[in-house]
Amino acid sequence: MWHDMFETGISYGEKTLRTIIVYAAIVVLLRLAGKRELAQLNTLDLAVVMLLSNVVQNAIIGNDDSLIGGIYGAAVLIAVNAVFVRFQAYLTYRTPDFEHWLEGTPSVLIRDGKLQIETLRRLALRPADVIASSRKQGAEHVRDVHEMVLAPGGSMLVELEQSEESANQGDVQAIRADLARIQERLDQLLLQRPRG
Fold it and tell me: Are residues 99 and 130 in the same domain?
């Protein structure tokens, strides 16, 4: 029993190489799939993600089902990701076009209160999903949205029309200061008014 838990079926070098190759392949496949895959998972997308991990499991660990082999594969995967993320950040600062190539460009989903239907079709996004996402970010209706963008990382960013923006503390303080000035002026006018 103990032997099976700690004796790996393949060499650590092979396991490392397998993990790096599978990681790179998944990064490329997700990039080719587009931002939509990262934006919102519907039922079909969730099924793909769940099955994807099972499909690539044997490619990473080979015929090794030992405990130590699984832990080693996970450690290599996390390390490869950490190195890649830092390398990506480094290249982004050195060569901005690299991030553009790797991540893609933002896509406008709503502009001036109108759904950009051609963009939605190209990205295979349903209007109902886009509208639901805009509501989660404060828009009651599509017409309340100045611009909604699907960022390269899959986030949906909403900029509301100025009339629909919520007041912040600075706005409230400015209104209070205006009201105080108005009250002061009214008090002055009341004092100047002839009594009679």
Answer: no
